[in-house]
Fold each of these.
Amino acid sequence: MLQVVDKSRLISHSFALTSHTKHVVRKLSDMAFCFSRGLAEDKDPIIYEVFENQMRDLSCAFTRILPGKIGGEFFMTKGHFHTDEDASEIYHFLSGRGLILIQKDNKCKALEVEEGQTLYIPPLWAHRAINIGNKVFSFLAVYRSNVGHDFDISKKGFLKIAVSKKGKYCLKDNKG
Ligand code: M6P
Ligand code: ZN
């Protein structure tokens, strides 16, 4: 069951660790195709993990993206569309600095977000979260349990990539 917990407990992950029904760990080897630049083949770092709590009609997921870069490109989630075309999603940001890429048709928007902010992701927009800071970027997502995840876009790539430049991030066209 979803409990009301204070923010410090969420950041310490005790909520996620005790209440989740599914735990996904994504390492570089699970998603190397998402990064457009060269890979450090000798290492296989954890990029992010998701603790999902699936309830009857609604689900919530706690996602933590570690700080880091692969060939200059910041650690990020795979990104997905919802197979249910009416399904939206809410993100509430808990720690760190991030960028949310949303994409529909040929439009790709980047939204810079930080702790305490909440974002509504409308139906039909693919979404990917990127850690552009040097601490863990974490957030809570709420969505309908039957939303369906279509990861095709993670293979084709989003139209933009976020790379490190002079200690900040910069967006570049994804040339595949
Ligand atoms: C959020 C939600 C989850 C999603 C997770 C990781 O918590 O959108 O549904 O699983 O981010 O994103 P992805 O599934 O694209 O790897
Ligand atoms: Zn989603």
Note: The helical segments are 7-11, 14-19, 28-31, 152-156.
Amino acid sequence: MRITKAAFLTSSSKPNQCPDADRPEYAFIGRSNVGKSSLINMLCNNSTLAKTSSTPGKTQLINHFTIDNQWYLVDLPGYGYAKASKTQRKEFKLLIDNYLRHRSNLMCLFILVDSRHKPQKVDLEFMHQMGVWGIPFVIVFTKMDKLKASEKESNIENYKKALLEDWEELPEIFVTSAEKAEGRDEILNFIEQVNEQ
Ligand code: GDP
């Protein structure tokens, strides 16, 4: 699948402000600065669609984009921003939890992790919670171009090991670089397959 028309639709500060759940929806989440905006722009072939922010953690809104008038792509706020206040973090958690638990057309959540880092507790705990709530998710490794060839495989293997301490089966894993436009076909083909099911 190729995206030909991607357009910003609306920003919501509450789940009940989101557009009607009238088509399949795919949401993207990850810690601040993980490369979420860059990945969304790369998938949509549009360098300015999602803002790549210089102030991480600032956006606390659910952003909906219409893709080819067929499905919604959702940019969720980044989590785990150390400089956010306790109240901000609480509000963020409430917004995201409510969205994730009640959005009936959410087909799959893309959880982004920076391929350079060791498995982080905050990400693993978040994935665990998705399991508890029964929300389907996949993992997207970002910024793979920043790794040496030798590190690529070992970092992914380490991550899988950490996952297998909590999960019996591994989720689908995508390896991407927004810089090199890697992983786009794999992610879009996956979405196409789910849409056709
Ligand atoms: P967000 O806060 O998760 O939306 O992250 P951004 O997309 O704004 O990216 C954070 C920083 O990482 C920016 O400086 C990006 O240029 C950089 N970045 C994002 N994706 C990649 C990538 O695939 N490769 C490289 N080398 N840098 C990236």
Note: The longest helix spans residues 86-102.
